[in-house]
Specification:
The chain is of the alpha/beta class. The chain is 39% helix and 12% strand. The mean pLDDT is 94.
């Protein structure tokens, strides 16, 4: 069967999202012909052109504008003339433009430039290309802001239409948006879709929706397919359905799609293809919602999966790798990895080998079903992908790369004398000895990210994280000493966390930055989900669910009640401000209370280099 797999706008601009590459590799091994496309990067490459911007400015001349949008409009001729060279530069095709951009003589400057970092301090006098990429990124973001304000309220470079998809308990807002005429950017996206359909002639189109912001564009495309290509069947899957739509009962989404699949998509898509070819009946479908007359039906067969070692090698064939943009949103070298470089994204092992953390969706298949291949298989796949893409950098998007498999994979890379660079998620545990960290660095590991989370031993034990602050510090020290950059994920607002514990956690983070144990960090507010241990047993964590009733459409985040005597939002602002400055080496000696606009206690006295608390 001819199958077209699509990543709808927008995921990342620097490298392809991996879902379609994995599915293409497997489905082709089963005899299907599979095309794939990233409509997001193709849309961006059409929008950021002189023709599009000229038309945009003409169409929005009479639109009421904010001060920032007026500043862009008033410099429209400079934006039009600069946009295509700037995009070529961000694609790595016009390096000689770096000096002009870095000297700030080439690009017009909108409101994003008013809040930029001190570029001379951040990049020095020799970091011309990174400085230029930073300014070009601000330029791109200024244009995105203008589009969102004047032309398409859903437009965003990373959270496209997220406002109508995130926390969507009902389908009302999405359905209403889809009944409106397509926006101009929607029309550009649909033109690309038509071209892909003409090239591939598919009988089945699959949309991968990893994030809420991709759902609107996926359904806008699906609606177009139904209206223009009635014989083509449409299936929706990916991270958003896997977490949010497991209990869907509102059938209106099936006006736009034929099938909704859950969890790993290899077997569900293969069975749908066989079903459409008349080789099997509906009872053989796997983890698939579909309409049976006017009633919603679910296939079941939830346990059928492909062993990870037999899931095939991801294939990037058909993706236009030269279109991707390497952006620099911050001078921090670790933080930059998420937006800079055409990393080959792949999974080292399926699921999480720990799968116990209370805040994590440990009841879902992509976490709870751990399945690791041999190191030989991992490196075989790496070599195959390098040959196909011409890129030797890998981002392992595992929940947590297993230390044993990392060791074996590192040895296999060294044995084959491969020159690669890679990074990925880990758990900060005692397995990361100086010897293992050195081996990882020698094999090409440049960075890791992992959860320090609450930075309180009491809370780490309560959430069953399986590590202590001291273990985190020791692992981070060993990694950093080996030349591997370290990013820490942080959390505030976990149930029963006191104001004192939160401030103590920030002091842990400050000391880790000050002593060079971590190079980057990010805070997020705790969210209780349906699929986590905390969501299943909230009373164990001292809170109460507000309701157990299910929404007719999306269900993920759980409302809960707890008694706290401080302003979490104000606390979050201070934590983010402090950590952003710490990442740039600023304010490490400042008293913690100065980062907050509310009263906070002093942290307990301790030294993370001697003992964690």
């Amino acid at each position: 069967m001819n199958i077209l797999l699509i990543t709808p706008p927008l995921t990342q601009l620097n490298t392809p999202y991996p879902a379609t590459t994995v599915l293409k590799g497997y489905l082709e091994s089963r005899g299907n012909t599979v095309c794939q496309a990233d409509l997001g990067i193709e849309l961006i490459n059409r929008i950021y052109t002189k023709d599009y911007l000229s038309d945009l400015f003409a169409r929005t001349a009479d639109v009421k504008k904010s001060k920032g949008a007026r500043a862009v409009f008033e410099q429209q001729s400079r934006y039009v003339s600069a946009v295509e060279p700037a995009i070529r530069f961000l694609q790595g095709k016009e390096h000689t433009l770096a000096t002009r951009i870095a000297n700030r003589t080439f690009l017009p400057e909108g409101h994003r430039f008013r809040n930029m970092i001190d570029a001379e301090w951040a990049f020095g006098v020799s970091g011309t290309e990174d400085k230029a990429r930073y300014f070009a990124t601000l330029f791109v973001e200024d244009i995105a802001d203008y589009i969102r304000e004047t032309d398409n309220p859903y437009f965003d470079l990373t959270k496209y239409a997220e406002s109508i998809s995130a926390y969507a308990g009902t389908f009302d807002q999405l359905d209403g948006a889809l009944q409106k005429e397509p926006s101009f950017t929607d029309s550009v996206m649909l033109d690309f879709l038509d071209a892909k359909i003409a090239d591939c002639n598919p009988s089945l189109i699959g949309f991968s929706v990893p994030f809420p912001g991709c759902l609107y564009s996926a359904l806008r495309c699906a609606k177009h397919v139904k209206e223009r290509f009635g014989a083509i069947k449409v299936v929706l899957g990916g991270g958003f359905p896997n977490t949010e739509l497991r209990n869907v009962s509102d059938t209106r989404i099936f006006k736009y799609i034929d099938y909704l699949t859950l969890d790993d998509g290899e077997i569900p898509l293969e069975r749908i293809a066989c079903f459409l070819e008349g080789k099997i009946d509906a009872s053989r479908l796997v983890r698939t919602f579909l309409m049976d007359g006017d009633k919603l039906s679910y296939s079941g067969n939830d346990s059928e999966n492909v062993p990870f070692s037999q899931s095939g090698t991801p294939s990037f064939a058909g993706l236009k790798m030269d279109l991707y943009l390497s952006l620099v949103e911050t001078a921090n070298p670790m933080h930059k990895l998420w937006t800079y470089g055409r990393w080959n994204k792949m999974v080292m092992a399926h699921g999480c080998y720990w799968a116990k953390c209370a805040f994590c969706d440990t009841s879902l298949d992509y976490i709870c079903r751990y399945d690791a291949p041999s190191a030989t298989t991992v490196v075989d796949r790496m070599e195959s992908i390098m040959a196909e893409t011409g890129e030797s950098g890998f981002h392992f998007v595992d929940e947590a790369m297993p230390p044993k498999l990392i060791r074996e994979t590192s040895l296999e890379i060294i044995k084959r004398k491969l020159s690669v660079s890679y990074w990925g998620n880990i758990r900060f545990e005692k397995a990361y000895t100086p010897e293992l960290c050195y081996l990882m660095a020698q094999s090409g590991c440049v960075a890791v990210s992992g959860g320090l989370e609450v930075a309180s031993d009491r809370l780490l034990k309560l959430m069953d994280k399986g590590v202590t602050i001291q273990q985190v510090a020791d692992s981070a020290r060993n990694l950093t000493n080996a030349g591997i950059m370290v990013h820490a994920y942080l959390m505030y607002g976990f149930p029963t966390e006191t104001l004192q514990e939160t401030i103590n956690a920030l002091e842990v983070v400050r000391q880790m930055f000050a002593n060079g144990l971590i190079q980057s960090a990010f805070w997020h507010r705790f969210a209780m989900t349906q699929h986590s241990n905390a969501g299943h047993n909230p009373e164990r964590y001292g809170v109460r669910r507000v309701s157990t009733a299910l929404n007719p459409f999306a269900n993920n985040e759980v409302d809960f009640e707890e008694n706290i005597d401080y302003d979490s939002d104000a606390l979050g602002r201070g934590l983010e401000l402090a950590t952003y400055n710490y990442m740039h080496g600023i304010g490490l000696d400042m008293p913690l209370y100065k980062w907050f606009d509310v009263k906070v206690p002093r942290p307990f006295k301790f030294n993370i280099m001697q003992n964690g608390r």
